C-alpha cells in the first residue's frame, strides 16, 4: 500500500469543516501551524485565525467518515495530495495571492512545474476555432510546452487533444472532485490525460460540478501558466474572466483574431484592444515566451504544408476564412462549376475547408 503523509488526515478534516475556506487554510500553512495543532487550539486561538463560532463548533465534530473516503481515494498509486508548503507544489501557482492551499492530483505531478501555456475559449466554437486550438496545441507541445486547460467542451477539449495527438503533455484543471468528470462525455479524454499528463483540482473527491466552482478553477488555470492563449470567445464569457485573472497575475495574454462577422471573435478583439498580443502563428507565442523554454522553435512550414496538387492548392487560396460561395470561386478561378465542386469535395474530405449553408471557408 502507498505510504501516506500522516498530516493529510488533518488537512482533509479542516478542508471538510464548514466555515473553513481556502484563505484560512493558507493562513494556517503560512504560519507554519501543523494541521493537527489547530484542533487543540483554545477558543481565542481559533478566533485569531478568523474562525466563526459556527466553524469552531464544527471543529469539535470533524467529518472523519468523509476523511476516510478521501484517504481511500488517495491510496491509489496515481492519486496525490499536495499542500502549498510541499516542495512539489507548482512554484508558478504558489505566486498568486489566492493559491489553493491543497491540490488533489491524478497523474504525473512533476508536470505542474514545467513551462505551461494555458489555452481557453468557447464551449461552442466554430469548426475553424477547434482546428486552430488543436493545431496550436500540437505545435506548442512539440516545442516542449505543457498545454493547460479546463477539460470543458469546445476549445478546452481541442487543446488537450492537440497536445495528446503528438505525444505531448497536457494538464486538465477540474471544477469537480477527481473521482468525477465534467462533462461526463469527457471521461475517455480525462483517462487519456491522466495516463501521460495530470488532472488537478482543489475540490475533494465527491464534489459535484457547481457554477461557482468554475471561476475558482479558472484562477488555477491562469496561475499555473507562463502565458494564456484565447482562441475564440464571445464578449461575455468565462474565457475573458480567465484572461483578466491572467493579467492580474502578471501572465502574458495572447488572442487569436477572427472575422468581424464571427461573434466568437469579439472577445478576442476586445482583449487585443486592451493590450493582449495578437497571434497569427505559433511563432508569435514562442517569441514572447522564449525566455521560459529553450527548446527549438517549430517552423511554420512544418504545420502548414497541405500536400495538395497545384490545382487544388490554387483553389484553396481563393477560399476565404469567412464564407465563400461556389459562384465566386467559379468566377475567380475560371474553372467549371463541376470542377470547382469536385475540388471542394476533396478539400473538405482532407479537412482543409468546411461548409455551412452552401458556402465554404478555410479551417
Structure description:
With 363 residues, the chain is α/β, with parallel strands linked by helices. It has helices spanning 8-15, 22-30, 35-38, 43-48, 53-59, 64-74, 91-94, 127-142, 155-165, 187-196, 213-224, 238-248, 266-273, 282-289, 301-304, 310-318, 326-333, 337-349, and strands at residues 79-83, 102-107, 116-120, 146-149, 170-173, 198-201, 227-230, 252-255, 277-278, 324-325, 353-356, 359-362. A nine-stranded mixed sheet has the order 1-2-6-5-4-3-7-8-9, sandwiched between helices. A hairpin with a 2-residue loop joins β11 and β12 (359-362). The longest helix is centred in the middle third of the chain and has 16 residues, at 127-142. The protein starts with 7 loop residues before the first helix and ends with a strand. Residues 297-306 have low confidence and may be disordered.
Topology:
Elements: H1 8-15, H2 22-30, H3 35-38, H4 43-48, H5 53-59, H6 64-74, E1 79-83, H7 91-94, E2 102-107, E3 116-120, H8 127-142, E4 146-149, H9 155-165, E5 170-173, H10 187-196, E6 198-201, H11 213-224, E7 227-230, H12 238-248, E8 252-255, H13 266-273, E9 277-278, H14 282-289, H15 301-304, H16 310-318, E10 324-325, H17 326-333, H18 337-349, E11 353-356, E12 359-362
Parallel strand pairs: 3-4, 3-7, 4-5, 5-6, 7-8, 8-9
Antiparallel strand pairs: 1-2, 2-6, 10-12, 11-12
Amino acid at each position: 500500500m502507498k505510504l501516506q503523509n500522516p498530516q493529510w488526515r488533518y488537512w482533509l478534516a479542516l478542508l471538510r469543516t464548514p466555515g473553513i475556506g481556502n484563505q484560512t487554510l493558507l493562513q494556517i500553512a503560512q504560519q507554519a501551524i501543523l494541521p493537527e495543532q489547530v484542533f487543540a487550539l483554545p477558543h481565542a486561538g481559533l478566533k485569531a485565525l478568523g474562525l466563526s463560532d459556527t466553524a469552531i463548533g464544527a471543529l469539535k465534530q470533524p467529518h472523519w467518515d468523509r476523511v476516510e473516503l478521501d484517504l481511500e481515494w488517495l491510496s491509489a498509486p496515481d492519486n496525490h495530495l499536495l499542500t502549498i508548503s510541499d516542495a512539489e507544489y507548482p512554484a508558478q501557482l504558489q505566486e498568486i495571492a489566492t493559491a489553493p492551499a491543497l491540490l488533489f492530483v491524478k497523474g504525473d505531478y512533476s508536470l505542474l512545474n514545467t513551462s505551461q501555456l494555458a489555452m481557453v475559449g468557447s464551449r461552442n466554437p466554430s469548426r475553424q476555432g477547434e482546428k486552430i486550438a488543436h493545431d496550436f496545441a500540437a505545435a506548442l507541445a512539440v516545442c516542449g510546452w505543457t498545454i493547460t486547460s479546463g477539460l470543458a467542451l469546445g476549445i478546452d477539449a481541442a487543446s488537450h487533444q492537440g497536445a495528446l495527438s503528438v505525444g505531448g503533455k497536457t494538464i486538465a484543471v477540474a471544477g469537480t472532485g477527481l473521482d468525477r468528470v465534467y462533462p461526463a462525455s469527457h471521461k475517455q479524454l480525462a483517462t487519456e490525460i491522466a495516463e501521460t499528463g495530470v488532472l488537478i483540482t482543489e475540490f475533494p473527491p465527491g464534489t459535484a460540478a457547481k457554477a461557482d466552482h468554475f471561476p475558482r478553477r479558472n484562477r488555477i488555470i491562469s496561475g499555473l501558466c507562463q502565458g494564456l492563449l484565447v482562441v475564440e470567445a464571445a464578449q461575455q464569457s468565462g474565457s475573458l474572466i480567465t484572461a483578466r485573472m491572467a493579467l492580474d497575475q502578471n501572465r502574458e495574454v495572447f488572442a487569436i483574431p477572427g472575422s468581424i462577422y464571427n461573434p466568437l471573435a469579439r472577445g478576442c478583439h476586445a482583449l487585443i484592444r486592451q493590450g493582449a498580443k495578437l497571434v497569427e502563428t505559433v511563432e508569435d507565442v514562442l517569441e514572447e515566451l522564449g525566455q521560459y523554454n529553450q527548446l527549438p522553435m517549430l517552423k511554420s512550414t512544418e504545420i502548414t504544408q497541405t500536400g495538395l496538387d497545384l490545382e487544388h492548392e490554387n483553389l484553396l487560396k481563393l477560399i476565404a476564412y469567412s464564407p465563400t460561395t461556389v459562384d465566386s470561386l467559379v468566377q475567380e478561378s475560371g474553372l467549371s462549376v463541376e470542377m470547382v465542386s469536385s475540388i471542394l469535395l476533396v478539400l473538405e474530405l482532407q479537412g482543409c475547408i468546411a461548409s455551412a449553408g452552401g458556402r465554404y471557408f478555410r479551417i
